[in-house]
Amino acid sequence: MRSGRFFVSVATWISIIGVCLGVAVVCFVMSMHNGFESEIRSRLLGTTSHISIFPLHNEYIANYLELVDKLENIEGVVAASPFIYYKTAISSVSEGDGVVVRGIIPDFEENTSNIKKNIKAGEYSFDDFILDDDTIPGMVIGSYLANRLGVYLGETVVLYSLHKENLTRTARPRVAKFYISGIFETGLHDFDGQMAYISLERAQKLFKTGDAVTAIHLKLDDIYTAVDMTPVIDSILEFEYDVVPWNQLYKQLFTWIELEKLALFIGFIIIVLVAAFSIVSTLVMMTMEKRAEIGIMKTIGSTPASIRSIFVMKGLTIGILGILTGWLLSLLAIYLQNKFEIISLPPDIYFISYLPFEIKVFEFLAVGVVTIVICFFAALFPAHQAARTSVIDVLRK
Predict the structure, then answer these.
(1) How many angstroms separate the Cα of 136 from the Cα of each of 100, 172, 190, 204, 263?
(2) Phi, psi at residue 216, to the nearest 5°?
(3) Which residue, 46, 274, 280, 331, could crosslink 114 as a Cys pair with Cβ 3.0–4.6 Å?
(4) How many angstroms separate the Cα of 327 from the Cα of each of 20, 28, 230, 274, 371?
């Protein structure tokens, strides 16, 4: 490692740096994907649910309170919450827009989602407010939606619904006025820019559903048991409902993230293979430089296997040094990003405003093992060539 000529020494350092950068890049990027996936999952599930139950044969779920009691008695289910979910139009004094309205029972919803914790202004309240002999119920909306409508706490908005109306020339939408009692912010642009919460009673009246809901969502004690719990819940409900776990509901999004991680890992292998060619060239040059030393070692009794092991060990040493420095470099970069949020993202495209990182030790170890294996095989050819060096040819020269 230390007795080579200048060019060989520089080539050794270049090989180490190549392995280091390959390991650092893949550990950094895979941790980025882990953090991105974890952040998206926690925010999505904090706003929606771990398992959603939809009507299978009917438009609505009528016996929803009985169903909630039944579901909450299932082992592993923390809480259940019924809701109504429809798209409609909303307008303020100055602006109008489309919005997704969710009618909820506040006490139930509080147990299954983080909506109350995400309130950034006002209160998590849907109580009526009397203004000029007019009773106006409360509404909680997302921060981006509030900005688009130009409204703040205490100001009024109007919802319009044509659900269950005969669409004729004389058809008129049902109109309901609400005041802004709270503004929430989840960090997910799609939710903060399109979601509005009202009480279940008001939603049933606005959308003419009667005493029924469109779905029920569940919170589990472990989100990763959702897939296993789904057939159990389906069986308990006698297969009368459509039971959908969170990873099925957002399958497209999380499949995309996993495919990107796989593509990055393949790219990492290619990077390390390029570094492996550098290791091969370095060891071949060293074999040529050390021919005399190899010949002398053979004359005093060194076997081809012992000569081969010297060059294999050098290849592995390059790999180990590259892995260790790559790990340290990636850990430093991850620490700086998590602490100072250096890399920001446009939230309307990436759901979140900054790039989070999450370290998984198994992935770091997997990267190290793959790198060591590649470096080992890269060192075999020059080691074999060194072991075949002819003592007679060396002594003649």
Answers:
(1) 20, 21, 27, 16, 53
(2) -135, 135
(3) 46
(4) 8, 9, 39, 19, 12
pLDDT digits (tens, 9 = 90+) for 55-102: 998 899 999 999 999 999 999 999 999 999 999 999 999 899 999 999
**How many angstroms separate the CA atoms of 391 and 267, rounded?**
43
Q: Considering only 20-29, 228-237, 341-350, which range has the smallest mean pLDDT?
A: 341-350
What tokens does 392 get?
Answer: 């007679």
Residue 39 CB: number of other CB atoms within 10 A? 19
Query: Which residue has tokens 């390991």?
Result: 23
Q: What confidence score (pLDDT) does residue 5 get?
A: 64
| Exposed/middle/buried for residue 86 (C-beta within 10 Å: 0-12, 13-18, 19+) | middle
State which amino acid sits at residue 316. Answer: L
pLDDT digits (tens, 9 = 90+) for 347-379: 666 667 778 899 999 999 999 999 999 999 999
CB-CB neighbours of 266 under 10 Å: 10
CA gyration radius for the chain?
32
